[in-house]
Amino acid sequence: MNILEKIVAHKRSEVAASKVAKHQRDFEKDTLFSRPTLSLAHALRQTPAPGIIAEFKRQSPSKGIINAHARPEVVTAGFTAGGAKGLSVLTDTEFFGGTFDDFSKARAANPHTPMLRKDFMVDEYQLFEAKSLGADVILLIAACLSPQEVQTLARKAHELKLEVLLEVHNAEELRECLCEDVDMVGVNNRNLKTFSTFTETSLELAETIPDTFVKISESGLKDTETILNLFQHGYQGFLIGETFMKTSDPAVALEHLQNTLSLSTNHKSSFV
Question: Right CATH number for 3-18+38-269 from 3.20.110.20, 3.40.50.740, 3.30.70.120, 3.20.20.70?
Fold first, then answer.
């Protein structure tokens, strides 16, 4: 059993236990369940420069502890102030050290910024959890789900007014799982079985993703040259976490990168 299979197996067990503790319909009574959702897709379409989705991540199976003591409300507020178009907050505890409390604190600190609940979604129950936490976007990972599960969960997410980010790793996953209830397609440059990164994966799939979907590149994004090249190939969003979180001040690291990207984009456009 590889690490992805272990994560999914644990997540299914975790969800089963959660269902015993709280009924799905009870989430609808939570205060944030009825809040209007914010569109990450719209925010990324409107940006003239590469749009950063900044991720709050404490640890990962491949890197171990990245930043154990960071405060989500402080870091994410800094991300927003630094120009992030959206936020991603891990809620998986067992493998990534995230919590619902992390998400809630980030939500309270960033009421006007689109937020992605970053987790391994395998059950409709988790969509109701996400909605009650104040999430705007949920992640569906093609490698964890069947095409039918992707369609069913994406449709239900839209019924709950949540946007859907479909994550793929290759052309086969894209072909089998892309459906009309997906809003954004994220190409993960990290192999979830080996955790190695290969940013050329995003370039290889760029022309395969229809332009009706917002294109997002994920993982292994460390330098402006790579990001600008992907931007020229149609990617509008860039999900970055570890690059920021491993620094002493993640918000400053993001602001520096965003300013560099904006200046580079403006410089190139002045010659067009």
Answer: 3.20.20.70
- Domain locations along the chain: 3-18+38-269
pLDDT, tens digit, 9 for 90 and up, residues 69-128: 999 999 999 999 999 999 999 999 999 999 999 999 999 999 999 999 999 999 999 999
As a three-state string, the secondary structure of the chain is: CCHHHHHHHHHHHHHHHHHHHCCHHHHHHCHHHHCCCCCHHHHHHHCCCCEEEEEECCEECCCEECCCCCCHHHHHHHHHHCCCCEEEEECCCCCCCCCHHHHHHHHHHCCCCCEEEECCCCCHHHHHHHHHHCCCEEEEEHHHCCHHHHHHHHHHHHHCCCEEEEEECCHHHHHHHCCCCCCEEEEECECCCCCCECCHHHHHHCCCCCCCCEEEEECCCCCHHHHHHHHHCCCCEEEECHHHHCCCCHHHHHHHHHHHHHHHHHHHHCCC
The pTM (predicted TM-score) of the whole model is 0.94
Q: Rg of the chain's alpha carbons, rounded to an integer?
A: 17
- Write the pLDDT tens digit of every residue in 208-234: 999 999 999 998 898 899 999 999 999
pLDDT, residue 266, reads 75
Q: What number is the average pLDDT over the span 6-26?
A: 96
